[in-house]
Amino acid sequence: VQLQESGPGLVKPSQTVSLTCTVSGGSITTNYYYWSWIRQPPGKGLEWIGNIAYSGSTYYSPSLKSRTSIFRDTSNNQFSLQLSSVTPEDTAVYYCARLGGAREYDYWGQGTQVTVSS
C-alpha cells in the first residue's frame, strides 16, 4: 500500500487548505481500515486530525472539529482534508496514514509541508 499527499504548500491566513491523499495498492473501502490525517507542527509532536472509515464514517479531533472536513472519492481511491480559517499555528507537515487492523498506523505518506503565511 502506498499513500501520497498533494496540496498547496503555502496558504494565506483565514483561507481553507485542501489536501488529498491518493492511495494505491489497496482500496479505501476495504473492511476494516481507517484512513487518517495527522500533522506535525515545527518542533512539536504528531497531532491527529481525523479519520474516515472504510464505511465512510468520519471522526475528528475535538480541538479541530469545527474547522475540519474529511471526505473521500472512492472512484479515484482518494480521501481529502479541508481545514478552514487557517492561522500560522496550522503550519505543519501533514501526513495521511492507514490505521490497520491492530489499530496501529501501518502505512504513511511521505508528508506535505503546509505553511500559513501572508
Q: Can you walk through the features of this model?
A:
With 118 residues, the protein is an all-beta fold. It is built from no helices and 11 strands. The strands form 2 sheets. Strands 2, 4, 5, 6, 9, 10 and 11 form a 7-stranded mixed sheet that branches. Strands 1-3-8-7 form a 4-stranded antiparallel sheet, with no helix packed on it. Strand 7 and strand 8 form a beta hairpin. The radius of gyration is 13 Å and the shape is globular. The termini are far apart.
List keywords for this structure.
single chain; 118 residues; mainly beta; 7-stranded mixed sheet; 4-stranded antiparallel sheet; globular
Quick check: average pLDDT?
96
Rounded radius of gyration (Å): 13 Å
Using DSSP, what is the number of strands? 11
**Helical content, roughly?**
under 10%
**What kind of sheet is the major sheet?**
7 strands, mixed
Distance between the termini: 37 Å
Low-confidence stretches: none
Shape: globular
Number of helices: 0
Strand content: over 45%
Order of helices and strands: EEEEEEEEEEE
Q: Which class best fits the helix and strand makeup?
A: mainly beta
